[in-house]
Amino acid sequence: MKRAYRLRRPDQFRRARREGRTFATPLFLLNLVAGRQRRTRCGFVVGKQIGGAVQRNRAKRRLREVMRLALPHITPGYDLVLVVRSTDVIEMPFVTLQTAVEDLLRRAQVWRTPALSERS
To answer: Backbone phi, then psi, for 55, in 5-degree steps?
Structure first.
């Protein structure tokens, strides 16, 4: 995922967590707030209860790839923070993880089907 599509500073995460709406599943929590830019940006939080640094980084890498593939389907203009709540994110099949994220984004009503001109 390109740097322009990621939240990087603590105040960006704080704003999404404080002002945003929250959607939860057993796997992760989604904080969603209207962004100050026209692009969608994502941030990822993995706490120490998930495991050591290797496991936490693996969970973030997997979620970053899921979101990179999902970006064309997300309505632009939102800041998203995904907080990992379960160690299952590390080991579950990638397709299952993609489906779980898609379902959560649909619940948050930011999932859209891209127009024909955007699909190529």
So the answer is: -65, -40
